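stage 2 :: seqdesign
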């Protein structure tokens, strides 16, 4: 039932409920300082990358971009990798956020830099003339 609700956003409140739940989890990673909030956000990011639609991508893009500045590299890496899946469904978001992805190339953590390079490389594979 939830799968059909995500495919038909105009007929089902599932998309609205899912969006609000994911926003709450993603914002909780920045508000709460506990390690538990960090892992809850990681699960929410993983969920979003698996069920992302154009509507979910548009609504949750600001939260994902905010997580690129999170103090923990675990959250920054997950957010970067999720952005790739979001951009596949919501390509307009790439224009709004490419500068913030480029900033991640100068991150102090090498695994975050690796994720940023991976996202840019995969995006250039999909549409090389944009790069």
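stage 2 :: out
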């Amino acid at each position: 039932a939830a799968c059909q609700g995500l495919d038909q956003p105009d007929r089902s409140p599932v998309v609205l409920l899912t969006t609000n739940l994911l926003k709450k989890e993603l914002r909780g990673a920045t508000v709460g300082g506990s390690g538990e909030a960090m892992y809850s956000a990681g699960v929410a990011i993983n969920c979003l990358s698996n069920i992302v639609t154009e509507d979910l991508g548009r609504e949750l893009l600001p939260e994902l971009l905010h997580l690129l500045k999170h103090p923990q590299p675990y959250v920054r890496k997950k957010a970067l990798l999720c952005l790739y899946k979001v951009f596949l469904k919501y390509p307009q978001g790439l224009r709004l956020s490419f500068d913030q992805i480029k900033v991640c190339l100068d991150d102090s953590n090498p695994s975050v830099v690796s994720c940023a390079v991976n996202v840019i490389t995969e995006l250039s594979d999909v549409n090389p003339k944009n790069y």
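stage 3 :: structure notes
- The two ends are 40 Å apart (CA to CA).
- Residues 14-31 form the longest helix (18 residues).
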